[in-house]
Amino acid sequence: MNQYIVYIFYFVFALYIIALCTAKLYSPFWFHQPVYHMYEIYPRWCTIPYIKRLRPPSFGIFCKPEQIISFQWNSCSSEFKNKFSRHLQGHYIDTDTNLYHINEKELEKRLKINAESILSGYFEFILKEPHFQKSLNASEIFGTISSRPTDFFSLKFPSMNSRIHFIDFISVHEKYGSKNISRNLLQTHIYNHSKIDSSFQSVYLWKKEKEPSKGVIPFIQTNTYTFLLKSTPIQKMPKQYRIRCLNKHNTDLWKTIYAEITNYFTVSLLTPFIHTLEWLENERYIVYVSIYIHNKIEHIHGVYIFEDTLVSWDNDTIKRKRMIRLAGSLIFRKTILHDEDNLYFFRGFLHCMKYILHDNKQFGVIEIPKISHNEFILERWSEKYELKNVSSLYYYLYNMVFPKSPLLPTNVMILV
């Protein structure tokens, strides 16, 4: 009997080794990265999140620090920022139907978050006469990546609350599209970041659309729904309800909302609060609140957070081409008890849209990811508007494993 147990052990061990070899062949890049791999067994029964790699990242085969240069935002020249934004405008959105509108001002709204934001650019080598020595051509960026500080809040595991970075603006010139430069950008950006700030624990979050990353279990997996806006009659809110757009005079109210977000969702990924105050002036996010008055006291009922995607549809049949996104929403209650609450939450959203479209004539498309409490809006919104497109949306954690992933998207708020 003992002999059979030994044989079974060897058989299972051999299968696991074969699975590891297969995983390495299937996804050679991600196999060596500290992410939640599909073949891992420990995270499937572990209940507490953990950091995978405590030491700083070392130089790897995908590192190209001689070609990928990184800067902190405050030490980055205006010339580099200009080249960075020009590259994004031409190459970040890889589609013939959408146009991306970004400039240094819009880039600053997203990355000017104290000195911690990091920008990296990929440059090509050229041969210089007379000795034809290899030299870096700094006149044009052929690939970009950035990361910006984000606060990670876990409701069930507050000990994991920490400052991480959100990776964005991964873009490669079509000249290098077939050479997997994005892998080099990611690996080198993380390596260079560790050299710039050795105290950072190298935990990142990144977003991927359409196709999942090979061999990696997502932190969040959901869909994004796109609708064309049209004129639709909306019913009035009850007289005790009000809609308010937050501005620089509502900092105390926003502080309350920010704190409550971390208490409502299993995980909240938010820009550090002190920097979100700039949103109330620069409209990086547009925040609306529905308020009801009871016994002459104001109570928050719903929060709606919109984002200008900087994307427009290149479609002659659409007059208003710019796309806005409902980045997140929140019903101010702990449990969903009354359908009437859902109805007024949705009507509040419609009134917010009415005000936005009145003030911003260019918006004609809305994108609603099924995340946070957007689900309750989508249920009713899809009855009124024709669905134009559905695309997959994935968020991944780098160097942190969160058990039971992927999380339910309705239990997560992401504002980065």
Topology diagram in text:
Blueprint lengths: L1 H25 L15 H4 L4 E2 L16 E5 L5 H14 L6 E3 L3 H8 L6 E5 L1 E5 L4 E5 L5 E12 L7 E11 L8 H16 L7 E6 L10 E9 L12 E5 L5 H14 L2 E4 L2 H4 L2 H4 L3 E9 L2 E17 L8 E10 L7 H21 L3 E7 L4 H11 L2 E12 L1 E2 L10 E4 L1
Parallel strand pairs: 8-9, 12-19, 15-16
Antiparallel strand pairs: 1-18, 2-4, 3-14, 4-7, 5-6, 7-8, 7-12, 9-17, 10-16, 10-17, 11-13, 13-14, 14-15
Helix pairs in contact: 9-10
Which key terms come to mind for this protein?
single chain, 416 residues, alpha+beta, 15-stranded mixed sheet, two-stranded antiparallel ribbon, 10 helices, globular
Explain what this protein looks like in three dimensions.
The protein is an alpha+beta fold and 416 residues long. The chain has ten helices and 19 strands. It has helices at residues 2-26, 42-45, 78-91, 104-111, 181-196, 251-264, 273-276, 279-282, 339-359, 374-384; strands spanning 50-51, 68-72, 98-100, 118-122, 124-128, 133-137, 143-154, 162-172, 204-209, 220-228, 241-245, 267-270, 286-294, 297-313, 322-331, 363-369, 387-398, 400-401, 412-415. Helix 9 crosses helix 10 (374-384). The chain is globular and about 70 Å long. The N and C termini lie far apart (58 Å). The relative contact order is 0.16. The model has no long low-confidence stretch (mean pLDDT 88).
